[in-house]
Design goal:
This protein is mainly alpha-helical. It contains twelve helices and no strands.
């Protein structure tokens, strides 16, 4: 009887997973496998015939200098967003972890930009850059300057999404035992020493998660530069994701675009795993 009950329970649990597995297979796995097939062709994305050309698309990726500019832009954006997203998120979390009047209201205020769509956020900041910054400070549009466009896009992305990492850090800080701070204070540790020796080691897992998420998000960024600048001026804000999009839908080079996307996906997996492993080791050492 117990054996039958266990089998029934197992089947019931598996039954709840079936819709999710089906959705994953239809929406992600099948398109991914079809994408691999397309990457070995010269398909233009429209015609019904696919001409197989072997590894030519993959060879073109490493011989085409046209991809270097989007690659540099992507790396630059990813580094900036990783540094500033985590610095600002941790700073806000440390402030909100303190008890003061209106704490809950400030948490809500900081989270509001995240509830807005990326499209709306981009249009708001485009208006600020082009109109307000010029009229108030006399500064020309930051997104119209090749030297400042990436930092300007980082500000938009930061404003729109910093609250996610802030909540992760805040939840980690709340779980740090208060008696450890009291013990460190009794031992003569100042604020910086308490942060370095108590806070940092105990929020290590949250730091690993936030850095990994920020870095992988920055590397695959598409919507902010696409909406705010379209990759301009002179491709100075074009990212790898935009480069893939243009080859898939604008240049009628679906095979080449799919090849880039697959190579880029493998690159993201390697980077994400490497960063996560490095920081996990640091957690143990701390």
């Amino acid at each position: 009887m117990n054996k039958r009950k266990n089998i029934k329970r197992s089947l019931l649990k598996f039954g709840f997973l079936v819709p999710a597995i089906f959705f994953f297979g239809v929406s992600m796995l099948i398109p991914f496998l079809l994408g691999i097939q397309v990457s070995f062709t010269s398909w233009d994305g429209i015609s019904q015939k696919m001409n197989y050309i072997g590894l030519q698309n993959y060879a073109n990726i490493f011989s085409n200098s046209d991809i270097l500019q989007p690659m540099k832009n992507t790396i630059y954006f990813a580094i900036l967003i990783t540094i500033f997203n985590n610095a600002v998120a941790l700073g806000l979390a440390l402030i909100l972890n303190k008890k003061f009047k209106g704490n809950s209201k400030f948490r809500l205020i900081y989270f509001i930009p995240t509830c807005l769509s990326t499209v709306l956020a981009c249009f708001v900041w485009k208006f600020l850059y082009r109109e307000v910054f010029y009229q108030v400070f006399g500064i020309n549009s930051l997104i119209g300057n090749m030297k400042t466009v990436i930092p300007a896009l980082v500000i938009i992305s930061l404003w729109n999404g910093v609250a996610i990492n802030m909540l992760i850090y805040l939840s980690a800080l709340i779980n740090v035992p208060k008696n450890l701070y009291e013990a460190a204070k009794v031992d003569g540790a100042n604020v910086f020493q308490r942060f370095r020796n108590v806070t940092v080691p105990l929020i290590g897992p949250a730091f690993t998660t936030c850095v990994t998420l920020s870095l992988t998000y920055g590397l695959r960024e598409f919507s902010v530069p696409m909406i705010a600048t379209g990759g301009g001026p002179a491709r100075s804000s074009e990212t790898i994701a935009m480069y893939i999009y243009k080859h898939l839908f604008e240049y009628s080079k679906a095979g080449y675009g799919q090849a880039i996307s697959i190579v880029f996906m493998v690159f993201l997996l390697i980077i994400g795993k490497t960063v996560s492993t490095i920081f996990r080791k640091r957690e143990v050492e701390m």
